[in-house]
Amino acid sequence: MIKRKDIKDYLEKDFNISQEVIDFVEKIENEIVEPLNDLNLTAEFHQYRVIKAMQRAGLSERHFSVATGYGYDDIGREVVEKIYADVFGAEDALVRPHISSGTHAISLALYGVLRPGDHLLAITGSPYDTIRSVIGLEDKYQGLGTIKEYGVTYDQVELLEDGSFDEEAILTAIAPNTKMIYLQRSTGYSWRKAVTLDAMEKMIKKIRAVKSEVVVFVDNCYGEFLDRVEPVSIGADLIAGSLIKNPGGGLAPTGGYVAGRSDLVHLAACRLSAPGIARETGATLGINRTLLQGLFLAPTVVAQAIKSAILLAACYKKLGFEVCPEVTDYRSDIIQSVRLNTGEGIKIFCRAIQEAAPVDSHLTPEPWNMPGYADPIIMAAGAFIQGSSIELSADAPMREPYIVYFQGGLTHYHGKLGILLSLQRLCDKKIIII
C-alpha cells in the first residue's frame, strides 16, 4: 500500500521538491476540495452526452477503416462529423485533420462567410494575436491575402473593465453591412475572464433584435465541455476550434473543426477545399478512431485540466500574486493567468513546467519570435502532441505586466507536478518564500 509519505519522499528525492513546498500545495488542495469535486459532475454529464452521440450515429468498427486518395465516401469521416455536430448541438460540422490549427479553423469561417464590402465586428476586444494577422491588423502581413485586403472592413468594441459586454457601444457599432459578429470565448493574451455562455446568450439576443440576419461567430478554442452546452445552442451561428485542444482529449494528433448552421459550414468547407468540391474529398488516412477516442475521453481530460488550473490559482493567490480567474470564479475556458510581474519570473515558471513534462523535459524554453505574434513568446510544451494545449503547457508574451498563461494537464497529478516544480524553482531563485 502506497502512503502519502512515499509520494512526498519520491518528489523530494527524484524531483528535488522540498517538503515545505509539498506541504504548502497539499494544504491548499485540501482547502479547495469542493470546487474540485464539482468538476466531476461536469465531466460525468458530458461523458454521457458524448456516448449517446456516438450511439445515435451508429458508430461501429467499420468506421475506423483507412481511406486514401481523394477520400470519396470516407464513411469514418462522415460519422465523425455527425457525432461532433450532435455533441455541439449544431446542424452540421466540418471536422478534418487537414485543418492545421484553431487559427486555420477560424480563418475558414471568416474567409468562407465574408465577402468584399462586408463588415466584421469583434465585440470582445482585440482578437488573439494570430487572428489579428488574418484580419490584417498588423502591417507586416499586408500583401499576404488578409481579410481587409479582400475589401472586408473591421471594427472592434472593447469589453468593459469588469469583462462584460459594452452593450451600448456594440449595438451602435452594428452597421447596415455588418455581416459577422466575432466573439472570442477565451482570454487569449489578455487579463480577463473568459466570456460565459450566459453573458453571450443575453448579448446575442440583443444583437438579433437590431439585426436578425447577422452571422454570430464564436472562437470556441479552450472552451469545449466547460458548460452544459456549446455556443451554437445559445444562439451562435458558427463556432470553430482545434482538435489538439479540449475536444481531442489529448489523443487527436492534429485537426480542427467548424460547426453550426449547415449553410455556413458548407461555405467553410468550400474554403478548405474548393467551390464545387467542399467536403466531398479529404481522406482521413485512418485517424478517425483516434479522433473519436479522444472525443470520448475529452470530458474527463478537460475536468482534470480545470482542477489543475484551480489549484494553481489557489497556490499563487495565497502567495500574493494576482490571478485571473479567481479560485471561485465560474470558468468558461481552461486557461489560468498569473501576473508574475517580471520577465525572469515568467522564464523560471515556464522552464519548471517544461521540467515536469514527460517529453522533452531536458529542454530549456527560451523566448522567440513566433510567427503571428507581435512580441517574443516563451512556451513550455513537453507534450506527446506538438502544440497540444490540453496537455500541460504554459506560455507568455515577453511584455509587461508579464502574465503567464497556464493550461492543460491530461491528469490532475501531472498538473500538480508542474505547479510543485514552478513553486520550487521560484523558491530556489528567492522570488517567493514558502
From TrEMBL:
It holds the Pfam family Met_gamma_lyase. InterPro entries: Met_g_lyase_put (IPR009651), PyrdxlP-dep_Trfase (IPR015424), PyrdxlP-dep_Trfase_major (IPR015421). It comes from Acetobacterium paludosum. It comes from the Bacteria. PANTHER family: CYS OR MET METABOLISM PYRIDOXAL-PHOSPHATE-DEPENDENT ENZYME. This is Aluminum resistance family protein.
